[in-house]
Give the backbone structure.
Amino acid sequence: MTAIWDSLGRAWRTTRGRAGAVVLLAVAAASVLGPFALPDPLAQPNILGGAILPPSLGHPFGTDELSRDVLARVVSGGRVSLTVALLAVGLSVTLGALVGLVAGYFGGAVDAALMRLVDGALAVPRLFLLLLLLAVSERVPLAVLVLLIGTTGWFATSRLVRGEILRLREESYVWAAAALGANRRRIILRHLLPNAMGPLLVAATLGVGDVILLEAGLSFLGLGVQPPAPSWGGMIMDARQVLVTAPWVGIFPGLAITITVLSANLFGDALRDAVDPRGA
Amino acid sequence: MGRWLVGRTLQALGTLLIVLLLLFILMRLAPGDPLSRLSDDQPLSAAEIASLRARYGLDRPIAAQLASFVGGLARGDLGASIEYGRPVSSLLAERLPATLLLGGAVLLLNFTVGIWLGVRQAVGRGAWADRWLTMLSLAGYATPSFWLGLVLAWLVGVRWRLLPAAGMHDPLLDPDAGLLTRSGDVLRHLVLPALTLSVVSIAGTMRHQRSSMIEALRLPYIVTARAKGLSEAAVTWRHAWRNAVFPVLTLFGLWLPVLVTGSVFVESVFAWPGLGSLAARAVGYRDYPLLMGTSLLVAVLVVLGSLLTDLAYAVLDPRVRLS
Amino acid sequence: MTRVLQVENLRVSFPDGAGHRFHPVDGVSFELRKGETLALVGESGCGKSLTSLALLRLVPPPGRVDAGSVIRLGDTDVLSLTGEALRRIRGRRIGMIFQDPMTSLNPVFTVGDQIAEGVRAHFKVSRAEARDRALRLLQEVGIPDPDSRLDAYPHQLSGGMRQRVMIAIALSAEPEILVADEPTTALDVTVQAQILEVLEALRRSRGMAVLLITHDLGIVAGRADRVAVMYAGQIVEEAPTGELFAHPSHPYTQGLFASVPRISGPVQRLTPIGGSVPPANAWPSGCRFRPRCPKAFDKSELPPELLAVGADHRMRCWLADPT
């Protein structure tokens, strides 16, 4: 596990790694602490006759079509988006690692069957899989959303882990461990898994950005996080009606998405270079 | 190579079969009842619901449904759209060309602008332009396509009134207008959606072309080429790029799912009458047969695209072609 | 004999990551006369490959040739050339052969293409004419059945044939000087002799001067007219071949000879040179061989210059002037 800390440290020491990590942590901090400092995002002071205010000192991001403070909603939406992303990615990575481990270690028919399944799953874009799963139901609770997003995101990770396992299986220290009489479980847990953790962590970090974009897209189509809970994608969907007269309502949530995903990708990139044994 | 081609095609077909199975299972797994939405608009009696069930075969056992599903596919019958009331296959056929046009434009932009920028970055590695382009591409990659589309639609289409921001044709255009005028009209409508969709994909293309080009420029045969007295342009494009383009080509196959996903949003935002907006509408109307049909077609396109890029790789790389 | 190449005080530097630069090639001087073969001998890390690359200004960045170096091709000052003028001497006045023909040939172009390209870079001839010349070059380097080989790809040829192709490429623009950087190192022993024969025959028939770079003393005997031994970025001994083999004077040269197994003569223990080659960014002070030299003495703390030890025989060692 120290190898992971080393990689994280190395990534932190690069400019983009640090920039990405700092912004990401800032966004996370804002979404946790924000609701305490900002007006209630769900409060609607004036449903009828409320003005849509442009950005000002009182409302740094302006107000939306229901006179709610946009900044508060963006911060609140961030909380939802980050939570969904982290949980879903956690699920995907775990599933992917499990499947990849099984396929890579046991090989043979099991491996072939699993990988054929993965091939098929990868042929249908993830969004369509989710559309099919979400279209039919009424509003899904957040937990179900996380579950669905998580279970559609493990395919590429499983291939990655399988590849790592196949490569590591041939490494001499695995042979040595087996020769010394280590049983299967020991080999998997102590030798194979820790070495595959690096690429897994990279995939997870980059996956967070992907899920944020995906969840935003689903919310934009009305399928993700359901109103009145604020979500970045949902805010953009609502903003469509007032786009011409009040562009700030839609611009800020989009900027929030871009900045968050960008920083996740920057850090993931730096991490990838740090983990790669061949060096940057 | 013929043998490889046959094997690869069989593999593609196998993948499609698994896709079919997967989609069918998904259909049954999805929480909720496909017919419940219908009764939202107008209350249906129990008898009507039952007959609809029968019509869509939802009352038969799973195995029978699968059998008729596959059987229907073999006949080219993808069922009927709940919203439009027409065969899904004809709807798909209608909307496919618009998506292909959009996709084609995006691929063209990728293959020209994306590759050229990536090569320039690699050649001028570490320079100011290289670093800025990298930042720009990372930002482009992180931008949600639907948001970017809206921003562009508002800025370019509404505020500056430079280009149309909705639809594929100008509804006010004279129906007797010549081919050139009509093509020009479509092209003008194509610009914004194509640009939006390109931003994300070009970002990726640039990055991969840059890194594969840097790798290629490090190789010994580049020194040989220079030692022969070739111009820098010949060294860069004829020698280095001809080798550096392969990894980018194979990545096109991986880009297809991303492009297709993006097209759902971009086509919706710009009301571009393609498969993407069709899928988005189908979602809104809980039109399951239509959504299934679209997903299937999309999977076919992705598998086909992947097969074609593998083929292109095999044809262009003599080491593969002649083995 | 006319002097075709003159190198004086050549220094190549690289940045060391801490703001300073180190010199893997540190004040090398030699000259090449028309029709003769000069062997540049040394272990890996002594700077001989960089020396040869510097001749064509092919030192990879961030390395560069330092000011104060002189490289003169006849009347031309190579270091002052840029752009088109530089391109015109590469291949046309100096041709280069590299060590590993597998990676030094572009895998996606045919062998004939790569040779013809060298021709057309310097002569205004038609494609057909260039192809003809490529064919004749293949014959000249002794490739059997050259007609069919013209359209072969590098991976379809054996190592020895690939190296012959490299020679053909180097000769395509009819240079007066041929630089061969470890031309046989990557080849099987039996093929090595063949390649060296080809080089020798070509040298005679075309009257070229050859700079043969190698770590293998064995291939030098009987093939080179003169030998220069390199160590730690400097030339430490130079003499006509016979003289060097008869009277190796520098302790390093003596060490090299002592560590080469001989087939004839009494069976002796091999005596390797103790220690290891110093890294280029940390040359020892004074005489650079001092840490490993069995004959080091107090004067070795001063950096020695090239001193005469016989007719046309010099070495960089204070043993020639111990006072």
In short: The mean pLDDT of chain C is 88. The two ends of chain C are 36 Å apart (CA to CA). Residues 261 and 269 of chain C are 9 Å apart (CA to CA). Chains C and A do not touch (no CB pair under 8 Å).
